[in-house]
Amino acid sequence: MNRTTSCLLHVSAWSVALLTIVGCGGSSGGSSSGGTGNTSNPTTVTYTFTGGSPTVVAAKTGTGPYTAVAVTGMQASFAVPVGTTDFAIAYVCPPYQTSSPTTPITVQEYVDFESTLDATSFTRECPIANSTPKLGLLTGSVDSSAFPAASALSMGFRWGDSAAGTYIYSGLPINGSFQRDGPIGSDRVLMLLYNASNIAIAAKSFNNQTVPGVLNGGNPAVFGSADATVSRSITYANVPSGFGTPSAHVSVDDMELANGALTQYPELPVGVVQSTDYYTIHTSSDLNSASVHSSVGVNTFPTGGGAVTFTFPAAWTTVEPVPAALPTLTFDYTGFTGKSNILRSAILFWKPSGSINTNSIFVQSWIGNKTSLTIPDLSGVANFLAPPSSGTSVLWSKGVGQGNFPSTTTAANGTSTYVATSGEYIVP
Question: Higher-confidence residue: 20 or 331?
Answer without folding.
Answer: 331
